[in-house]
Structure formats: structure tokens, C-alpha cells
UniProtKB/TrEMBL annotation:
SUPFAM superfamilies hit by this protein: (Trans)glycosidases (SSF51445)
Catalytic activity from the UniProt record: beta-D-glucosyl-(1<->1)-sphing-4-enine + H2O = sphing-4-enine + D-glucose; a beta-D-galactosyl-(1<->1')-N-acylsphing-4-enine + H2O = an N-acylsphing-4-enine + D-galactose; beta-D-galactosyl-(1<->1)-sphing-4-enine + H2O = sphing-4-enine + D-galactose; beta-D-galactosyl-(1<->1')-N-octadecanoylsphing-4-enine + H2O = N-octadecanoylsphing-4-enine + D-galactose
Gene: Lctl
Descriptive protein name: Cytosolic beta-glucosidase
Family: Belongs to the glycosyl hydrolase 1 family. Klotho subfamily.
Top class in the EC scheme: hydrolase
Enzyme nomenclature, EC number: 3.2.1.21, 3.2.1.45, 3.2.1.46
The organism's taxonomic lineage, starting at the top: Eukaryota, Metazoa, Chordata, Craniata, Vertebrata
Single annotated GO MF: beta-glucosidase activity
Key words of the record: Glycosidase, Hydrolase, Membrane, Transmembrane, Transmembrane helix
Entry-linked InterPro entries: GH (IPR017853), GH_1_N_CS (IPR033132), Glyco_hydro_1 (IPR001360), Glyco_hydro_1_AS (IPR018120)
Example GO BP: carbohydrate catabolic process
Organism: Sclerurus mexicanus (tawny-throated leaftosser)
């Protein structure tokens, strides 16, 4: 049931995006290539072979996009820094890019001038390509020191103004999609070890950066360093079945616990160690495919988070499923489970993203119980709509935001320590291997127009109302928000239609007319040549 009430005073409302998905300018002003530049430039890796080369042109549109943030009346903006934009090869000793550093300085200053708090992620997937080519990226332990050098440069250059740092955004996807399935950059399919090895080095990198901040910067800068983990919720198909309950627990532990358990409890989840260890033994391997932490490493890693960032999008039903002995096992078969969905769940966007708000409250309560009720910021939560049609009246997103934000309010009443919410995302943008086919933005971008104008969807108006009311005051008011949001988007649709017509006319003027004119001249020349030849 829906719960009417307000959030505590001082609750933070925001919106987010990431560097590669929005900035564009992939090779401008001294930026080095990232693994996503290399990956998207290979044919067949991304839907319709689209790239983030220009993306939303965010590199050139900072002031415009900050105006959108002001329009939304958010408290904070979650952005990421592109490592190769400020350190082209990824190696501090080799080269720094002052223009890249200046870009982020200007962005941070502009945000603060407009009373918007920057929350900055150091890594949202765009590893410098040189580090991938030279060392194999996150497969190599040397990344720990390179990442620490990069993080310290960021603390040195921006830490006087940035007080909320995220080391990694959704490292699960970096490890699993980058090094096992190969769906994401760098596109490697390294069987049963690749994802576990990458995650192991990411966890060590996170811990080292936290200690660097703690020892060198914290006293002077007074900021916080956390990590952002994205996880679905797993609900047992049959809550009375112990095997289904165990399978649902494994789903969470293999997803969230893989990274959260070492940071909050000092080691990988027991169930992960047992399952991967047993499957490795069945394969005849001498040691587990899941790496181990030494006693010193466990102590070093435990407690290295001042807050926990949580990304959450959807839920799955889970049941036990035994995978037969396989010579090549991997992350998905190690878990011995199957995922199901309820066909009655709304799916406003892509097939994987079902709207199941109640799963969020359960996930937040799981975190409270498992990890000692840590300070939580929701760092990513949102839904996309399909690309087929421009949906400025995004009813599905409004219902999604309303439902999921309401479950956070319920979780707060359960005693969960949530301090802020970040809607994902500010703009329609490049969605990794899906290209531009999924639209997560509160603002629509007309990518066919060379100026890439931004248009507010109905959800902008609705989210603004939630922010200004700090929650959901009463049924009448909330219903009124919905009506007004729908009225607003109808007007915006008319603007978009008019602008699209103008863009079309400009295209006709710029391309078609010169082409027709050129053809006419060519025809005249040909006719003249024929005439002169016949005449002579």
C-alpha cells in the first residue's frame, strides 16, 4: 500500500549521470582514449554500431545542463570524472592533461555557485585504453597503484570543494560484463576466473584509495569516501521452501555481497567461497577460482567506506537450479539458481527492467541487517523507455519514481539509515552496449538535431514536486502533481514537434537544396556540352 508522509529534514535529493555516457569530445583537448572508445569503435559491439564519441555534447554544455539542475531544484548532482581526460595514459608519471583538470574544476565551481553539491565518482567504467593494452586492465594487480595515483590527483585538485567521493560505480558490471560475458568494454570472455580476478583487484583498489584519503586528506578536507554498488533484489519463488530461500540469499550475496561483504565484514560471503570452491574442486582445480584475501588484507579492507552508495533498478524471483558439472564454470553457473519474473509486473522500458518497488525496501532492510545499518545514499534509481517513440509524457517513469521513492520512505520508518536519493538520470544518453536505444533521462535529447536540445519530460515536473514537498504529503496533492505534469508535457510536445519541423526544414535547406542546385548545374553543363558538340 502507498504510504503518505515526508522525509526527514535535510534529506538530499539529486540526479546523476556519468562521463562517457554524456560528455562526448572523446579525443578533444588532450583527452586520451578509454576502453569504451576502443570498444565502441569496433563493429558489432554496440547496438547499431553507435558510439559515445559525441554523446550528449556535455563537455560543451555544462552551463546549459546546470540550468536544468537548477530547474529541478536538486540538492546534489552525481557526476563521474573521466580518468583519461585528466591523465591520458592513466599513468600519472607520464602525463597530466591540464585542460581536462580545468574542465572538471569549472564544472565543480559552477555547481557550487548554483548551490548544488557535487558527488563525484572516480570510476564509471572508462579505464584508460593504455592501461588495458599494457597491463590487461583490472586483471592486473598493478591497477591498484595506478588507480590510487589517479584518485590522489583528484583529491589534490578537487578535494577542497568535493566532499563526497565514490571510488567505483557499479563494479559488478565492470567485472562481470567486462571480463566474463564480454558485453561491455574491454569485451573479454575470460571464462570462470576473469570476473572474480577483476573484482578482487577493484576491491583492493577501493580500500587503498580509502586509506589514502584517510591518512593524507581527511583532516584537511573533511570529506567522505564510499563505493556505489548496484544490486537487484532476489525474492524466493516459494517463501516456504528452504532451498528457494537459500537460492534467493545466494542471488544477493553473489551480487551485492561480493563487494559489500569484504568492505563491511572483511571477506567474501561464506556462501560464495563455498560454492565457487566446490565447483573449482569438481573441475579438478587445485585452488578456488575465487581469489582469497590474506589476514592482513582482510583487516586492511574491512571498514573502508564512510557511506554505501546503492544503485537499484529491479527485482527477480529466484529458485534453486543445479547446473550439471561443467568443465568451464563461470559466475552464472556457480550460483546454482534460476531467475524468473512475474509477467504481471509493469515493464515500462526494456525487457530486463520490471517495476517492482517493494523489492527496494527489502534490499535496504537486508543492508541494514547484514552490514550494521551503514549510512546509505541511493546513487542510481530509474527506468528507461524504448527508443521507438519520443515519450515526453512518461507516465511509466512517474509511476516508477513514485513507487520506488515511497519504498525508501517506508525503509526509513523501518530504521534504515538512508540520507539521500539520486534519480537516474538527468539526460537521455549513451547506454553502453545498448547504444541510444534506451532512454533513462528526465530530459529528452533530440539527437537528430546537431544542437542536441534538451526537453523536459513530465517526470521533471513530478520529481520537482516530490523534492519541494520532501515526500508525499497527502493523496489529493500527489494526484494534483500527476495531472499538472501531464498538462506540462503536452505543451512541451508541441514545442518539440515545432522544433523538429524547423530542424527538418534546416536539413532540407542545408543538404537537399545545395544538392539539387549542384545537380542542376551539372545537367546544364552536360546539355551545353551536347549542344556545342552538335553545333560544331
Amino acid at each position: 500500500s502507498f504510504y503518505y508522509g515526508t522525509f526527514p529534514a535535510g534529506f538530499l535529493w539529486g540526479v546523476g549521470s556519468s562521463a562517457y555516457q554524456t560528455e562526448g569530445a572523446w579525443d578533444k583537448d588532450g583527452k586520451g582514449p578509454s576502453i569504451w572508445d576502443a570498444f565502441t569503435h569496433k563493429k558489432g559491439k554496440v547496438f547499431r554500431n553507435e558510439t559515445g564519441d559525441s554523446a550528449c555534447d556535455g563537455y560543451y554544455r555544462v552551463k546549459d545542463d546546470i540550468q536544468l539542475l537548477k530547474e529541478l531544484k536538486v540538492n546534489h548532482y552525481l557526476l563521474s570524472i573521466s580518468w583519461p581526460r585528466i591523465m591520458p595514459t592513466g599513468i600519472k608519471a607520464e602525463q597530466l592533461n591540464e585542460k581536462g583538470i580545468q574542465f572538471y574544476n569549472d564544472t565543480i565551481n559552477s555547481l557550487l555557485e548554483n548551490n548544488i553539491t557535487p558527488i563525484v565518482s572516480l570510476y564509471h567504467w572508462d579505464l584508460p585504453q593504455v592501461l588495458q593494452e599494457k597491463y590487461g586492465g583490472w586483471q592486473n594487480i598493478s591497477m591498484v597503484n595506478y588507480f590510487n595515483d589517479y584518485a590522489n590527483l583528484c583529491f589534490e585538485k578537487f578535494g577542497d570543494r568535493v566532499k563526497h567521493w565514490i571510488t567505483f560505480s557499479n563494479p559488478w558490471a565492470v567485472a562481470e560484463n567486462g571480463y566474463e560475458t564480454g558485453e561491455h568494454a574491454p569485451g573479454l570472455k575470460l571464462g570462470g576466473c576473469g570476473a572474480y580476478k577483476a573484482a578482487h583487484h577493484i576491491i583492493k583498489s577501493h580500500a587503498k584509495v580509502w586509506h589514502s584519503y584517510n591518512n593524507t586528506w581527511r583532516r584537511e578536507q573533511q570529506g567522505m569516501v564510499g563505493i556505489s554498488l548496484t544490486s537487484g533484489w532476489g525474492e524466493p519463488v516459494d517463501p516456504h521452501s528452504q532451498t528457494d530461500r537459500d537460492a534467493a540469499e545466494r542471488y544477493i550475496q553473489f551480487h551485492l555481497g561480493w563487494f559489500a561483504n569484504p568492505i563491511y565484514r572483511g571477506d567474501y560471503p561464506e556462501v560464495m567461497k563455498n560454492y565457487v570452491g566446490r565447483k573449482s574442486a569438481q573441475q579438478g582445480l587445485g585452488t578456488s577460482r575465487l581469489p582469497t584475501f590474506s589476514v592482513q588484507e582482510k583487516t586492511y579492507i574491512k571498514g573502508t567506506s564512510d557511506f554505501l552508495g546503492i544503485g537499484h533498478f529491479t527485482t527477480r524471483y529466484v529458485l534453486q537450479k543445479n547446473f550439471p558439472f561443467l568443465q568451464v564454470s563461470g559466475y552464472h553457473t556457480d550460483r546454482d539458481l534460476a531467475e524468473l519474473v512475474d509477467p504481471n509486473w509493469p515493464a515500462p522500458g526494456p525487457k530486463w527492467l520490471y517495476s517492482v518497488p517493494w523489492g527496494f525496501r527489502r534490499l535496504l532492510n537486508f543492508i541494514k541487517t547484514q552490514y550494521g545499518n551503514p549510512l546509505i545514499y541511493v546513487t542510481e534509481n530509474g527506468v528507461s523507455e524504448p527508443v521507438q517513440c519520443t515519450q515526453l509524457c512518461d507516465e511509466g517513469r512517474i509511476q516508477y519514481l513514485k513507487g520506488y521513492i515511497n519504498e525508501i520512505l517506508k525503509a526509513l520508518n523501518d530504521g534504515v539509515n538512508v540520507k539521500g536519493y539520486t534519480a537516474w538520470s538527468l539526460l537521455d544518453k549513451f547506454e553502453w552496449n545498448k547504444g541510444f536505444s534506451e532512454k533513462f533521462g528526465l530530459y529528452h535529447i533530440d539527437f537528430k538535431n546537431k544542437n542536441k536540445p534538451r526537453y523536459p519530460k513530465a517526470s521533471v515536473d513530478y520529481y520537482k514536486k516530490i523534492i519541494s514537498a520532501n515526500g508525499f504529503p497527502n493523496p489529493r496533492e500527489v494526484e494534483n502533481w500527476h495531472r499538472k505534469a501531464m498538462d506540462t508535457c503536452s505543451t512541451t510536445h508541441q514545442h518539440l514537434a515545432a522544433d523538429s519541423l524547423i530542424t527538418h526544414m534546416e536539413m532540407v535547406t542545408e543538404i537537399v537544396l545545395p544538392t539539387v542546385f549542384t545537380l542542376c548545374i551539372l545537367i546544364c553543363i552536360v546539355l551545353l556540352v551536347f549542344y556545342l558538340r552538335n553545333h560544331t
